Amino acid sequence: SSGINAEYGGATKEMKEKFLLEDANDYGFISNGHESIAGQDDAQDFLDTLEALEIMLATPEEIEAILRIVSACLLFGNVKVKQERNSDQAILANNTVTQKICKLLGMPAVDFEKALLKPRIKVGREYVVKAQ
């Protein structure tokens, strides 16, 4: 199976809910290359990964942060933008994914979407907002 499914295949229902985990085929970044490997035990691989993190003296909070970041990174592949009608400005096709990312990372969705779609760039000594 894919490495990501190996990482999350053994996640409990509570972990899947807490880290907003979806089926491996639902992630744009990895869905095209998902292959199963005979004899691969995803659940055991996940438990082994958690155990390895504990052996490396990661705290439960650090392990949770790692899982949140990996989940958010996977969701980035599902962010879709489209062009706003009568303008060059990009808009989100659906803000559900960015809301999930922001929940995982603990940041305001409005600020994240603004930074994604209308970044501030430095021109000389001034900052300007650039339409994407």
Strand order of the largest sheet: 1-2
Number of strands: 4
Share of residues in strands: 5-15%
Measured as a percent range, the helix fraction is: 40-55%
Shape: elongated
SSE arrangement, N to C: HHHHEEHHEE
* Cα end-to-end separation: 37 Å
Whole-number average pLDDT? 84
Radius of gyration: 18 Å
Mind summarizing the main beta sheet? 2 strands, antiparallel
Residue stretches low in confidence (pLDDT < 50, at least 5 long) are 1-6
Structural class: mainly alpha
The tally of helices reads: 6
Features:
single chain, 132 residues, mainly alpha, two-stranded antiparallel ribbon, 4 strands
Q: What can you see in these coordinates?
A:
The protein is mostly helical and 132 residues long. The protein has six helices and four strands; from the N terminus they run ααααββααββ. The strands form two sheets. It has a two-stranded antiparallel sheet with strand order 1-2. A hairpin with a 6-residue loop joins β1 and β2 (90-92). α4 (60-76) packs antiparallel against α5 (96-105). The N and C termini lie far apart (37 Å).
Summed up:
The chain is mostly helical. It has helices at 3-8, 13-18, 42-55, 60-76, 96-105, 109-117; strands at residues 81-83, 90-92, 120-123, 126-129. The strands form two sheets. A two-stranded antiparallel ribbon has the order 1-2.
